[in-house]
Please model this.
Amino acid sequence: LINDIIDFKMDLINKPEKVIIGKKLSKKTGKNIYWLLNFIGAIIAIYLASHVQHLLLFLIYPAAILILYFYSAYFKKVPLWGNIIVSLFCAGVAGIILFAERESYNHLFNSQPELANKITYLFSGYILFAFFSTLLREIIKDMEDIEGDKKLGLNTFPIFFGIKRTKQISAIIASVIILGLLLSCKWLATQKEWAALIFTLLAICLPLLIILNYLIKSELKKHFSKLSHLTKMVMLAGLFLLIIIWKF
Model:
C-alpha cells in the first residue's frame, strides 16, 4: 500500500493498467487502510511478544514498518539498496521461523540431531534461494521499468550501471542460483528425496536456464516483463519444493 501510494506517478508510466491507488481507490482511502493495517499488525505483535513473555520482540514490527516505508520513499530509487532490502525481507520470512522457534530448535538438536540437521539445511538453502531469486527478479523489474524511472529522475540499478552490465550481473545471479540448486540436488539424492530432486531440476533449474538464455537476448520492456513473470514462477516453484520434500 505505501509503495503504491508513494509510487503513484511512477506506476502511471510503468504499469498504468495495474494502478489501483489514485484510480480505483483514492490516496486518502489508501492511507487510511495502510494505517489501519499497521494498527492491527501492532496489536498482533504486542500480543505475540506478550505471549512469549519477551516484550522487546515487539520492536521487530515497527522496525520492519519503518524499513519498508524508507524503502518505498528512498531506497528503491538508488542503485541496489532497494533490491537488497526487498530480498532480505523475503529471505527473512523463512529466517523468522527459525528465530521464533529457536528454543524448540535447540531442543531438537539434542533429541533428534539428524532431523535438526535436515531442517537446518532446508531452511538455510531456502533463505539463500529466497534472497537471490528475489534479488534477480527485482533487478529484472528495474530493467522493465527503466523508461518510466528515467523520466522521474530515479537512479535505479540499470540506470546507474547501464542495461548491458545489469544483464551481466543478473546472469551471474541466475548462475549462482542454478549452481546452488545443483548442489542441493546432490544432497536430495543422499536423502533419497527423488520427487523433490526431479521437481528441482524440471520446475526450477530448467526455467532458470531459460531465463538465463532469454536474458542475453532481451532488449525491450516486453522482454523484461516476460522474464519477470518467469522469475515469479521460479520463486513459486521454490515454495512447492518445501511441500514436496516433507510430503514424500
